[in-house]
């Protein structure tokens, strides 16, 4: 039995060593990555200057045509992330400030995403490779219930979010395989989708006094960034549109552009405008807020 | 509680320590702790079905004794058929009743009579097909006077409910496991080491091969209407490796952990995808089930002792029953039927026992023939797996039809944001490892075992699929 315990102990030690070594290797690879997505791009960047930075979910990513801002002389990047919540938008802004970005305006899409304070696993996991290298990220995640496992168990985060930051993603980082996330200054245009569901029901959504929205407001205030918060359009057949009114009651400073673009010909799905709709919408935003 | 879960990673060492350090005094105490652990393990699935398991165990235990003690042939037959009827009755109610009711209703509706089937709202008790077959083989063996009845209820319960084999086999025989349970086990370091290697390799098969293949196979099968020929072909290959990795991985883990308790279980897989014909495949795939059907169905039906017609009939019977054993769906029956069809030419040409020796390859033409026969057997197997995986027979035919009609062999981007070809290298690497270790039970033992263990653990950690957790496929049977 003694030999068995020694044998088993060796296996445990090998496993532990592998966890540590793999953690170091993966983290090293991600620390050199800057062309796979917006998070690694910001994390591994130097100070930048922007007139406009767009933040939010896919309803920011697909709705604000960054090149149109550029055409008007406004240096812009769309940092909206499909599937993201305000948890990630807030952290991304913190990282930009930490890297001494000079930002004049932040356009934040805050509408449906105000209804929850959860992190979006698929997006938030992209910050996790840097959790030991950034106090900002560590602090931001510290309130999460699995923080201890994510932070203290070597390689746990790469196993837990294996589809996002696991071997496959690490390998693509290694070979510098590009994605489309950084094309078009971060804006991702949607086309026509013949199978799209052109209905939505928001009746069960309730806006919250969102902690991360409050954080974004504070960061902007502290860094003299002009914060423009907008709600973006939904398709015609949407139930429970009074949600947008409820948001306005919570946060009167949020501009309601829900009905700025009407007609399903401008939509790719009920919550996402196509490129045509996005261009129309962006033109309105540029005119209203930048007078151009 | 799955073998590859954290809770099981705590459960197994706890049972191991209790077994060897607290309950190690006699074989009865050893068996008692294993029984308690097994019942706890089973109750983690659904405690209500524990009563069914205990009842089934008691039924076969009691009828076994009554058969042996019966003074008349009528009494012997009575107790025998009572056990068979109750065992198959449970299986019928829980697993097949709804299928028969729905099929009957459909048949009647086909004649223009409107009926709606009276369906039962029951869930299938996990492992019922496996422990029922344990009990059946025991009772049949006593009835045929191959073995003596077991009078110690704890020992018999352990044979039926032993947790490594409880929910997905291998299907043990009383002649093999009961004698081991009847003696006190002593710790054997070499056996335990082998067991650990087998558990590690089983985990590689499950989390690295099966679950990774499942990610791709599911994306292809669930959206097969929009897939091109290449993706559809890859989908079948991925599913073939998914089901092999999943089930043989489970079996390896079961065999491995059983070795930790000093008990040997029947080998269930012997590198089936290196088979040179379908007969060989069935000697290497789910061996404990194939031999069960051979011994308790094929041979009692007359086996190959009659003429060719009887051989063919019996072959079709066991393949159809085997298909039906897997699940109450026409797709499984079709899968069994297809395998019987594959078997037919071998029977007619009397070549069903021609590839008995371990396959070897050399640099000559006959080896090329061997390679081609392995590839063609694998292709036939994949074709049958489509029926196993599809939701209906119509869907299976549609899937196959699209392979031939689509005619596009370009890489395709799947719904899960991956290209269909991405894991081909992983599968090739797995095949090479299996090929090199085809004379062993697992590839880790032998020279450089520490290097191989390290590589396997690294593969489990780095290449395993964890976020999209997949149950063992055979748990549903």
Keywords:
heterodimer, A: 292 residues, alpha/beta, five-stranded parallel sheet, two-stranded parallel sheet, 9 strands, B: 477 residues, mainly alpha, 2 domains, 0% strand, globular, SGNH/GDSL hydrolase family protein (chain A), transmembrane (chain B), transferase (chain B)
Description:
The complex is a heterodimer of chains A (292) and B (477). By secondary structure, chain A is of the alpha/beta class. Chain A has one domain: SGNH hydrolase (Rossmann fold, 3-Layer(aba) Sandwich). Chain A has 14 helices and nine strands. Chain A has a five-stranded parallel sheet with strand order 2-1-3-5-7. Chain A is elongated, with a radius of gyration of 21 Å. Chain A starts with a helix and ends with a helix. Chain B is an all-alpha fold. Chain B folds into two domains: 181 residues, no CATH class; 204 residues, no CATH class. Chain B is globular and about 70 Å long. The model of chain B has no long low-confidence stretch (mean pLDDT 90).
Radius of gyration of chain A: 21 Å
Number of domains of chain B: 2
**Overall morphology of chain B:** globular
Give the percentage of residues in beta strands of chain A: 5-15%
Low confidence ranges of chain B:
none
Oligomer: heterodimer
Task: Tell me roughly what share of residues is in helical segments of chain B.
Answer: 55-70%
Low-pLDDT runs of 5+ residues of chain A are none
Give the end-to-end Cα distance of chain B, rounded to a whole number of Å.
17 Å
- State the order of secondary-structure elements of chain A, H for helix, E for strand: HHEHHEHEHHHHHHEHEEHEEEH
Query: Main beta sheet of chain B: strand number and arrangement?
Result: none
- Globally, the shape of chain A reads elongated
Order of helices and strands of chain B: HHHHHHHHHHHHHHHHHH
Total strands of chain B: the figure is 0
Q: Report the average pLDDT across residues of chain B.
A: 90
* Strand composition percent of chain B: under 5%
Q: Helix- and strand-based class of chain B?
A: mainly alpha
Distance between the termini of chain A: 80 Å
